[in-house]
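Reviewers of the previous submission asked for a worked example of the structure-prediction workflow described in the proposal, so we include one complete record here. The input consisted solely of the amino acid sequence. No template or homolog information was supplied to the procedure at any stage.
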Amino acid sequence: MVEEILTFIVSGAEAQRLDKFLVTCVPDFSRSRLQGLIDDGLVTINGVTARKAGQMVEAPASIQIRIPPPMPTSIEPQAIPLDIVYENENLLVVNKPAGMVVHPAAGHASGTLVNAALAHDPDIEGIGGEQRPGVVHRLDKDTSGLILLAKNDKTQRFLQDQFRLRKICKTYIALVDGAPPTPTGRIEAAVGRDPRDRKRMAIVPPHKGREATSEYHTLETFPSHTLLEIHPITGRTHQIRLHLAYIGCSIVGDTVYGRRSPSLALNRHFLHAFRLVVNLPGDRLARTFEAPLPPELEDTLAQLRRR
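From that input alone, the workflow returned the following structure tokens.
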């Protein structure tokens, strides 16, 4: 990849901020990305380097932007097999296995989904000027199922807007201990940091957390367990796990918010991101992606059905 040079002519009667003008000219870039280019001295106005993002520009003026090629990421590519459900030039839809962390972080510097995706597509356009995939939403380490990864800034912002406007429909499958109070229901309970343990989340008073809503429907019942379909309306950290524990039916294998000793022999929690219904950039109609339950969860259900 080589440096790209873009030139734009300012017209119109009113002066405007430089960064606001550039956002309209380069919609593929976020405002913060454009501000970074200005700060790095890569934007000129009539041949003179722009001083700051808030500088006012007025007609007539010629603005030039130098866009350097994406910098190599500090994240190491790792040839880890991926179950790719769908891929195009803008994004990946991956069926993530339980046990895999989504993004490198303290304690998980390697072996993550992002490490694997970078090895899968080493020529990725990148996010924020760095050659890496963009995480649009997350799944817990022990939650399996569908997750979206953007390959460029424009797609990442498009998908983030879809989540923010609640236009993406997510469906999870969970096996819980006991049964919910009603076969079908809606849970509304705010989620925030646990004041006693900052590493955990908790159900908190509305003024101390973020509003959170989940809907559920019973799929199958067993003597001591229930199989549920869950639709999270919002997307808070650990929301489904917290909401189900809140109504008295924690997820099987969830030793953080549920029983410390799992009721069934399962080395993970029984939560799977089964379906995504999403509009992709350039598509008129929404697409539906599904990932079947992994073998260990199917085996657990089979054992319950034989009892």
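Residues 4-69 form a domain with the Structural Genomics Hypothetical 15.5 Kd Protein In mrcA-pckA Intergenic Region; Chain A fold (CATH 3.10.290.10). We consider this example representative of the routine output the project will generate in years two and three.
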